[in-house]
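FIELD: query
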Amino acid sequence: MAELLFAISAEQAGTLALKASEGFTQAQPSAIAVIGYILSFYFFGRSMRALPMGLAYALWSGLGMLIATAAGILCFCEQFTPVSALGVLMVIAGVCVLNLGSEAA
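FIELD: result
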């Protein structure tokens, strides 16, 4: 599980840097984005040795989406609408259902 958390953290660092790179026009954020995504895939692959693929991917993408949404609001003054909130809640529900399904198996 620690490797999955490293994967999510690296992906979010890469995503924030990607936004800051302004379409890969800024060298330092662009380099951080590439390194973040490489580390994310490395740790994500390692995490799937211990976690079911569906659950690992749901957590990776779901938690990543939650963190990216919060970072977008806090760092880049992006909008968070009621429709966005509904989407976030639906993703959380989906991750919970997948987690229950993997425990039942």
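FIELD: remark
Helices lie at 2-20, 27-47, 53-76, 82-104.
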